[in-house]
UniProtKB/TrEMBL annotation:
Subunit structure: Homodimer.
Ranges for domain Trehalose synthase N-terminal: 40-183
Organism expressing this protein natively: Natrarchaeobaculum sulfurireducens
Protein name: Trehalose synthase
Any one of the GO BP annotations: glucose metabolic process
Family, as annotated: Belongs to the glycosyltransferase group 1 family. Glycosyltransferase 4 subfamily.
Domain Glycosyl transferase family residue range list: 225-387
Record key words, sorted: Carbohydrate metabolism, Glucose metabolism, Glycosyltransferase, Transferase
One GO molecular-function entry: glycosyltransferase activity
UniProt cross-references to Pfam families, sorted A to Z: Glycos_transf_1, TreT_GT1
Domain of life assignment: Archaea
Length: 413
């Protein structure tokens, strides 16, 4: 296990973008938790929404006076091959679980659990990668509630993989899911908490004109003098970059100058990323208006989401989809599929459009609807910003989370 380096965060930095009473509630909860020591565990410090969330949640909690640690598992490629298979299986696709997979999973999780020697009052473990650690932690910290935060879409899991996960859930006292439809694991208590974006990070903060111009230059040869539609996602089969290509090709028939940017990073715990990136790049190689971009710095992603005319999130399964909230926060309308947490964020006909996950042609037509109506695009953008401000910014998620901590610890807030 290792502890990632973290930025400094001040709760006061959020005063400009969220209600004062929400910040005061956070301080009240933090006072209640001032004697508690909290541990977060996950499988990677880079790439993907969980790592991004923890990179903000942990330092803000520290600034609030809550002693909070974050430890990341140490594991090799064999383990991540297994856990990616588990991830895929829980989202509805995969080969049967093998005995070899079970052995690899048990060995790595047991080794990591044995490295945690400090005392904690509450443990929050994220996603299936960490589940195998919980029995050992329950023995070592018998008085510490164990919370499991599942960020995966569990609406149609393969039974073999649901059984695999369920074999490790006995130590869980409380589970948190992003939607009620995901709460299919038998645990004593559950809560539904929507993830959030951090509006003061490099990826989401406002950009001055000069900064935006500099990032625009960095994105060359992508030209913003012609319409741009963008998808920002890990290169992952569930994100359906090939479906987005089809939607773009449909839209391009009506908007010949249209460009497509497919931007994504490589999560540290996802061994499929590079292979899929190469497949997508090969599929698009003959079209100079398609740009496959990988591992852009956060400032460039910020600018890309702001400068794009439309953002697409063409997922087939989606735990939540924080990239949707990122784009909406920047007043860019989104065409998204009706899966996972996307419909919680996209209000069809108000800040974007929703299409069925297999309807690439419909997605293309909705892109055209937005590109051909500047007034609608601006109106959707204003609605989008307000939707995220009200529902999907970090202080709101922290209030939800800390209230669960207080309740789990039996404290009076």
């Amino acid at each position: 296990m290792h502890a990632p380096s973290l930025p400094d965060r001040s709760i006061e930095a959020y005063a400009a973008v969220t209600e004062r009473d929400l910040l005061e509630r956070l301080r009240e909860l933090a006072d209640t938790l001032s004697e508690a020591r909290i541990l977060h565990i996950n499988s990677t410090a880079t790439g993907g929404g969980v790592a991004e969330l923890l990179r903000s949640i942990v330092p803000v909690c520290t600034d609030l006076g809550i002693e909070t640690d974050w430890l990341v598992m140490d594991a090799d490629d064999d383990f991540f091959e297994v856990t990616k298979a588990v991830h895929n299986g829980l989202q509805g696709s995969g080969e049967p679980v093998t005995d070899e997979m079970k052995v690899i999973y048990r060995e790595v999780t047991a080794t990591n659990a044995a490295e945690i020697e400090a005392e904690y009052d509450l443990v929050l473990a994220h996603d299936p990668q960490t589940l195998g650690m919980l029995e050992r932690l329950d023995e070592q910290l018998p008085n510490a509630p164990i919370i499991w935060r599942c960020h995966v879409d569990l609406t149609e899991p393969v039974e073999d993989y649901l059984a695999f996960v369920s074999a490790y859930t006995d130590p869980i006292d409380h589970a948190i899911f992003s939607r009620s439809a995901y709460a299919v694991v038998d645990v004593p208590a559950t809560s539904i908490v929507s993830p959030s974006i951090d509006p003061i990070t490099e990826k989401n903060r406002p950009l001055e004109d000069a900064e935006l111009a500099a990032e625009r230059d960095r994105l060359d040869p992508l030209s913003f003098d012609a319409p741009v539609v963008t998808q920002v996602s890990r290169f992952d089969p569930w994100k359906d970059q090939f479906g987005t290509l089809e939607a773009y090709r449909t839209a391009k028939k009506a908007v010949p100058e249209l460009q497509l940017a497919l931007a994504g990073g490589m999560a540290g715990d996802d061994p499929e990323g590079l292979e899929l990136y190469e497949q997508v790049a090969a599929e698009a190689v003959d079209d100079p208006d398609v740009h496959t971009l990988t591992d852009l710095p956060d400032g460039a992603i910020n600018a890309l989401q702001r400068l794009s005319d439309v953002v697409v999130q063409k997922s087939l399964r989606e735990g939540f989809g924080l990239v949707v909230a990122e784009a909406l926060w920047k007043r860019t309308p989104v065409v998204g599929s009706t899966v996972g947490g996307i419909p919680l964020q996209v209000e069809d006909g108000r800040n974007g459009y929703l299409v069925e996950p297999d309807d690439a042609i419909g997605a293309g037509n909705r892109i055209v609807d937005l590109l051909e109506n500047d007034e609608r695009r601006r109106s959707f953008g204003d609605n989008a910003r307000e939707r995220v401000r009200e529902q999907f910014l970090l202080p709101r998620q922290l209030v939800d989370l800390l209230e669960i901590f207080v309740d789990s610890l039996g404290l009076d807030s």
